[in-house]
Amino acid sequence: MSIRIGIYGYGNLGRGIENAIRQNSDMTLAAVFTRRDPATLSIGSAGVPVCHVSEAEQWVGKIDVMILCGGSATDLPEQTPALAKQFCVVDSFDTHARIPEHFAKVNASAIKAETTALISAGWDPGMFSLNRLYAGAILPDGKTYTFWGKGVSQGHSDAIRRIEGVKNAKQYTIPVEAALDAVRSGSCPELTTRQKHTRECFVVAKEDADLSRIEREIKEMPNYFADYDTTVHFITEEELIRDHSGIPHGGFVIHTGKTGKDLEHNHVIEYRLKLDSNPEFTASVIVAYARAVARMHAEGICGCKTVLDVPPAYLSPMSHEELIASLL
Amino acid sequence: MSIRIGIYGYGNLGRGIENAIRQNSDMTLAAVFTRRDPATLSIGSAGVPVCHVSEAEQWVGKIDVMILCGGSATDLPEQTPALAKQFCVVDSFDTHARIPEHFAKVNASAIKAETTALISAGWDPGMFSLNRLYAGAILPDGKTYTFWGKGVSQGHSDAIRRIEGVKNAKQYTIPVEAALDAVRSGSCPELTTRQKHTRECFVVAKEDADLSRIEREIKEMPNYFADYDTTVHFITEEELIRDHSGIPHGGFVIHTGKTGKDLEHNHVIEYRLKLDSNPEFTASVIVAYARAVARMHAEGICGCKTVLDVPPAYLSPMSHEELIASLL
Prior knowledge:
Two copies of one chain form a homodimer. Chain A is α/β, with parallel strands linked by helices. In chain A, 34% of the residues lie in helices and 26% in strands. The first copy, chain A, is built from eleven helices and 14 strands. In chain A, the strands form three sheets. In chain A, strands 3-2-1-4-5-6-14 form a seven-stranded parallel β-sheet, with helices on both faces. A four-stranded mixed β-sheet of chain A has the order 8-9-10-11. Chain A has a three-stranded antiparallel β-sheet with strand order 7-12-13, with helices on both faces. The model of chain A has no long low-confidence stretch (mean pLDDT 97).
């Protein structure tokens, strides 16, 4: 029987989920929920109902897993614990520092309602977290490094757009090759923020804007840019649309560790993602975990889970026999 | 309480397990079991009993997990199902084609005896299997490639040593850079055996041996070398010892896949291992899974498992709270 998915929030991530469902033959999109007027929303899946979020309750029993596609700042802290009272849910909550608190709230809801929830699915948190865990457990005498990019940081792009005189902007986070190489060498370097990543900004300025002031304001912006080597390029709106419309991202988790009688042997574990579309890849991870959630729920496993808690086999539509015969 | 480990078989892998246990403060080595005369065996851990394999039965209740360090050809197919009747066990059975059969036998023993077994731990099968599973589940419209090396293949080195006139030999399997790049490009190339790996052989010949015959015999050896571009270097015994005494290995699992409305976006997931010591890294993986086995057994989970079945969090000595706060 097909796993019936609800999409709660229809932005970049929601559209990614919609596309990913089509790539998984054991799933169907049951409904899309929006805070907007449903009549104004045109989705990519013919015949699928678009409902207002206030109607969600009527879908209890008709949706196996509700995928929450809101933002981590204000949407998910409210929505995930609330929806977990009625549905099995998956979200991509990515405010690392607040994950324990979010976990506790969602877990309380899910245990009480006997639903199954999975929070913080995606690639970081998500696949990167898994790789940090596996590598650290295997090589305890070692050190894990995470690098992000090359990719577009939405938060940093937004910060530039808020500067007076800026019409539009895209910011790329770029890992420093020399830092990657130093890490891979097994020397366990201590790296500063500046040594790990650079930031490259493509800015469309308003007519007559003071470019040197804009550049200075970007480079001196605390937290966002001041601790990094930042490059600013002023380009036209046409160039921005032509060359910087994508949402690529990715990164590296590299763990080096030592083994042997005198810790004389060095090992490097490296996990790399190179993604053309950040939201679509995140959506693909979420959809695989939605399968796991449906399966765990069918087995009577309730409460809040994370990617760290899910047996890998639960992500695959293949049977256990197929998995051990073909992948192990 | 410390997890009490037994090592069953004391070769390269057994010694690796012994070292890895010292790197994990929640484990102790309880005893080493050997088929040799225990009096002749000198191990690296002072005060740890060395016992004959026939004495294993007396250790029931004093060992939490028995780690089997025998070979996959003849040892493990007998030993793992037999030992699983009395102990929780972990092995590194790596004959891919016979894993389903091995799984069934070990599972039958473990279910009957209410023990917990985990087979085929290591890096391939093992960490590579996990990465094949995760990547394929996340990006179903894609293709997974596995490359091995640069590293020493024991089987191929042995095959060379059996040639008339060969005194000693080491064989390296090397992935072809152009093939790695073609895979990373997302073009999903069809690659022949020859296109994926080359083989490099360092051979010490006996005095007066016919070098050109040896080289020809190596290069024409069916299954082992005939399908590969093979290079043969004749060196002295001193050079072999000086430059080729290590047992490095590693490799790559690369999966590329597409997402989007028209599958217009490409993604690359790459997992790489670069290992100074193949047996020590394998041992490190096994020891982490021994922890998982002890934990699953304490929770009443019995039967045969594989790396695909184990929740990642079970590998770590950290609490769930620590894990989600620090790694997620």
